[in-house]
Amino acid sequence: MRAPRLALFASAAALLTAAGAHAQTPYEASGQTAPTAAPAPGAADFTDEELRKYDVAITRVRAVSDTLNGAQPTPEQQAEMAAAVQESGLEVVRFNAISNAAAESPVINARINAMKAPKPAPGSVAAGVSDAELRQFVEAMTKIRAVTANVQNGQATPEQSAQLTAAVEGSGLAVDRFNAVATAVSQDAGLRARAELIGARQQEAGAQ
Fold it and tell me: Looking at the DSSP assignment, which residues form a beta bridge with residue 203?
């Protein structure tokens, strides 16, 4: 069997790890705090609707906080940020819970990005990638990243090439299908967001 394309692997690996660079900065709305005795909710404890409201609110909050440059907000700015939370439809306690969870769990941001991402065009390769195939692809990419991190000057050794091939074959995807999915992930924002969500969930599950 021919060896998988290393350049494509490296490109897809970079795309799948890029989500970590966009982790959202936590913000805690003033006025109420969650009870300290209550266990912190996890990523699965928030509904899609709550995350949509949170995304609207945090976008408005950041528009204000980004202008502060480390300074304390004025009363007017505090009121503007508080209004952003209230008008989103979320309770302050719930907003703070999501904000704190987002700082700890990449799954929160990945879920938001997946909800916001455009759907693949009907009939495209990206639209035809199933959840099962995408999980297989992401699992293979986890192994591939470990190999490509040690590749020198973009040229894999015979041993590394064998490891790359084994990562794909072990995923259950044929090499041609793997390459088709990799190309689609690199080109389609919606599919890439789905892959990043799967990767975030796998990473979180592995850390538990």
Answer: none
